[in-house]
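Fold these two proteins, one after the other.
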Amino acid sequence: MDAVEMKPALGWLEAAAKWFRSGLAKKSGGPRIGLALGGGFARGIAHIGVLRALEKNNIPIHVVAGVSSGAIVAAAMASGSSADEIQRIALSMKFRDIARWTVNLLGLAGNDRMITFLGRLLKTNRFEEMQIPLAIIATDLVKGGPVTFHSKGDVVAPIRASCAYPGLFLPLRYQGRMLVDGFVSMEVPAAPLLQMGADRVISVSIPNQEGNGDYGNMFSVVSRCFQVMSARTENSWRRYSNVVISPPVADMSWDSFASASRLIELGEQSAMAAMPAIKKWLTQPMPAALPSAIQSRPQAQGTRPQFGNIFPNRDRKGAGVFR
């Protein structure tokens, strides 16, 4: 199947049993590491720095999932592109590469130009041809929940849907659904990675922009509303994450394409700070059940990053599972 709705969880044991029966839980020796990349529009370019840090430290990634801008980077990685290859395209990226202004009651721009952009970025555009199993999350506007695309079928349309930020981009009609940004229903796609066989999850969360009191247009108001809402639902994905990396890019604007080099640098620094915790998995795997989350919080340049233990909510009611 290529699209799966995320529905309320059954009991934890029942969900786990169904997961194992589905065949998605095939494992090889050692931990299976999943990488979840959240949204952030242009600030999501910081994900590239995280990929570079993982490459430099030879951290194997067995499954990857993305929403919004994270979906673009996740798909590029899964298709076989290196961090350097993705960076070369990101450094020259402009808003007009993915958007075309339009007059429409449903949005201000279409993202059909993303088809050409992804053609340059991806080494394959089919889920079944990816070198790393990939999941892309969009939001079903009618049913009000996330839809996970994976396993087979076209990759480009799900990415476009996952990037269709409400109010800015037009919703995408695909496979009988009206789809918008995956960020609306799942800020960071950690949970789907567990159903894809991961037992360790690295989540990369792009922090919300800092409020500045200057909201002079509709988009800035809508964007700030989503930021406030996501802060209230943060635990819904943290509970499934073993390590959380949050590059310090909150002071950069949503369209900071011109700051790509700095975004990548900050992403790499944050990931490097979390590397000791990640490397422990390769020598001393943690128990698979009820992981703790470790968040890297790089401080001012020249200071040592601090790590805090965040123990997940053990109540999994309301969480999403594959069906």
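Now the second one:
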Amino acid sequence: MLASPRMLNIFKKLIPALAIFMMLFTMACRKAILAPSRPSKAVLLDLVNNYRKASCTCGTVYYPPVNPVVWNDTLELAAKDHSDDMDTKQYFSHTGSDGSNTGDRLSKYNYLFTTYGENIAEGYANEQDVMLGWIKSTGHCQNIMDGDFKEMGVATKGKYWTQVFAAH
């Protein structure tokens, strides 16, 4: 049985709408990859310091081995502020929703810095995966390998990660 020209016309009009519906339905049902609510400080320090002691090429630039960083709870608080803000407002940027930068967030906690850097990430399920993402990104890798940084803190919220490096 062949469809009439009128029926074919109706189907042609329905197909784009059906395709949009299926796309939206699929997107709504996709589960977001959430970061752990309390990532392991020890694992993160080990991952970062293993790269720092071994040397690394970030993009096309070779970075020789540098001294390890230590954990700093104040840097973790500044990182937590930023991850919380990105999760609450659903955006992804180094600039806070209030226009703040990493230095502003550090100053809020009276951390007197001489230098700082920040890595952010979205949608990584664990410490190893986010670290690989950062190492594959030239700018993030450069932060990890920056010998001027002496301390680090990391925090997550929802699907967002924030890693802060600094030195007094």
